């Protein structure tokens, strides 16, 4: 593993104004969704940000991908500070950092064919399309395990798992350095989740991208992550290699999350119960 992280976030803070609180004699209140969050993501590895709904993990991912602006803190991509980039410079960041969203159908234009959808990043980036969009779309469909003859179909003609594969095909079309998966499997059936996770791991082995994986399901995280950062209340309360966090959690909140997970492996379940018991005696 290279000592220099592919994506580095330091002391990220994101505040949002609270509606209806401003007045003549008082300033508007602000809600801190992300509070001094730092992490490193290396090429070829998967960092999972985990926590309950409202913990700040998705907002953190959006800050890292520059989908929203930071209130304070910095984001570096390949050693370059991308925190305040705009215009053409930010467009290049968009190529290098792609996002797979939670609900595939809401992120795919229902009036566009698959061919148009998966090649959209190439057109947006004004990149050459050797052989034309039909040829590129067919190759992308094949890479994600879908029938290349279906490039003329529309999103409504696919299942949820197939639609998510289309979303992944669109994301990898521009060969990103970082793939942000924001609850990318949470809306899918368990068997389909496993298929998508296997696909992401296979693509990562082939392409070497770093993956920032946002999830609340620790059973899924155990399958895909190489490292984990646990968030609550907008802060990271525990971070480390996956097995260290799962097998020997140090923070009470992490132990509570693990205690709520259905049994995955008997030996993990036994260690988890022992950790929770030891923390409460």
UniProtKB/TrEMBL annotation:
Family named by the database record: Belongs to the ABC transporter superfamily.
Residues of the signal peptide: none
Gene3D superfamilies: P-loop containing nucleotide triphosphate hydrolases
SMART domains linked: AAA (SM00382)
Domain ABC transporter: 7-258
Entry-linked SUPFAM superfamilies: P-loop containing nucleoside triphosphate hydrolases
Domain of life according to the entry: Bacteria
Name of the molecule in the record: ABC transporter domain-containing protein
Pfam families noted in UniProt: ABC_tran, oligo_HPY
Keywords: ATP-binding, Nucleotide-binding, Transport
Alphabetized CDD domains for the sequence: ABC_NikE_OppD_transporters
Protein's UniProt keywords contain Repeat: no
Native source organism of the sequence: Streptomyces hebeiensis
InterPro entries: AAA+_ATPase, ABC_transp_ATP-bind, ABC_transporter-like_ATP-bd, ABC_transporter-like_CS, Oligopep_ABC_C, P-loop_NTPase
């Amino acid at each position: 593993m290279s000592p220099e992280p592919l994506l580095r976030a330091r002391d990220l803070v994101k505040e949002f104004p609270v509606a209806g609180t401003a007045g003549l004699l008082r300033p508007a209140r602000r809600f801190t969704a992300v509070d001094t969050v730092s992490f490193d993501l290396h090429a070829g590895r998967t960092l999972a940000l985990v926590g309950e709904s409202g913990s700040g993990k998705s907002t953190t991912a959006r800050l890292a991908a520059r989908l929203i602006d930071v209130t304070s803190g910095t984001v570096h991509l390949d050693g370059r500070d991308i925190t305040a980039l705009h215009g053409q410079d930010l467009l290049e960041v968009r190529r290098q950092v792609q996002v797979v969203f939670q609900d595939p159908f809401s992120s795919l234009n229902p009036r566009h064919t698959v061919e148009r959808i998966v090649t959209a990043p190439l057109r947006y980036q004004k990149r050459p399309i050797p052989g034309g969009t039909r040829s590129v779309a067919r190759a992308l469909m094949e890479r994600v395990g879908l029938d290349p003859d279906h490039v003329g179909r529309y999103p409504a003609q696919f299942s949820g798992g197939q639609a998510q594969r289309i979303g992944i095909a669109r994301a990898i079309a521009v060969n990103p350095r970082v793939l942000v998966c924001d609850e990318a499997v949470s809306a899918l059936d368990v068997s389909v989740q496993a298929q998508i996770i296997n696909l992401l791991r296979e693509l990562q082995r082939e392409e070497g991208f770093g993956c920032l994986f946002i999830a609340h399901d620790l059973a899924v995280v155990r399958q895909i992550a190489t490292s984990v950062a646990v968030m609550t209340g907008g802060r990271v309360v525990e971070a480390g290699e996956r097995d260290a966090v799962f097998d020997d959690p140090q923070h009470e909140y992490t132990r509570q999350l693990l205690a709520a997970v259905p049994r995955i492996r008997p030996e993990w379940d036994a260690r988890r119960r022992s950790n929770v018991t030891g923390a409460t005696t």
